[in-house]
Amino acid sequence: MLIASELLQRYNEIVSESVVSDICISGECVSMLYETSWVKVMVVRYQVAPDICSIEVEISFPDCVIEVVFPSPTLAQEQAHEYIESTVDHLKYLLKLKDAGFSLGILSLEGIWSAVLQIKGTPDVELFESLLPP
């Protein structure tokens, strides 16, 4: 199980590395902080301002196909229920991030829901507690 102090430690490792031009695209360097099938948490740094970075969270729904058939098998109904509950939990997670100071975004055509927070200085562990996904 992921804990906030591990996320903070990984974040500190990422930001302590130099911003190298060969790993950046258009001056923006992206490092993965944490990833699940639902959530990507990334640290974005900029060559022009290496002391400022942002944390970006992207949620996209994992592939799932549960056909509606009659009579509907119990297992399929349980899987559909779990998937819907997980979807709701992840959308509530985004709202929790908004309460923690993140700005929200939606790219509906790509199926991506996002939250971004710009960071100056050293964040505390409470920020990383809010980043823990469902």
SSE topology sketch:
Blueprint: H1 4-16, E1 28-35, E2 39-46, E3 49-60, H2 74-99, E4 103-107, E5 112-120, H3 125-131
Helix pairs in contact: 1-3
Chain-averaged pLDDT: 91
Instruction: Give the proportion of residues in helices.
Output: 25-40%
How does the major sheet shape up? 5 strands, antiparallel
Task: Give the DSSP E fraction (strand runs of 2 or more residues).
Answer: 25-35%
The outline comes out as: elongated
CATH topology: Aspartate Aminotransferase, domain 1
CATH architecture: Alpha-Beta Complex
Order of helices and strands: HEEEHEEH
Strand order of the largest sheet: 1-2-3-5-4
Q: Radius of gyration, Cα only, in angstroms?
A: 18 Å
| CATH C-level label | Alpha Beta
Quaternary organisation: single chain
Domain module count: 1
- State the secondary-structure class: alpha+beta
- Number of helical segments with 4 or more residues: 3
Low-confidence stretches: none
The termini sit apart by 11 Å
Beta strands, count: 5
Task: Write up this protein.
Helix 1 crosses helix 3 (125-131). Strands 1-2-3-5-4 form a 5-stranded antiparallel beta sheet, with helices on one face. The longest helix is centred in the middle third of the chain and has 26 residues, at 74-99. A hairpin with a 2-residue loop joins strand 2 and strand 3. The chain starts with a helix and ends with a helix. The model has no long low-confidence stretch (mean pLDDT 91). With 134 residues, it is α+β, with helices and mostly antiparallel strands. It is built from 3 helices and 5 strands. Helices cover 34% and strands 31% of the residues. The protein has one domain (4-131): Aspartate Aminotransferase, domain 1 (Alpha-Beta Complex), CATH 3.90.1150. The chain is elongated, with a radius of gyration of 18 Å.
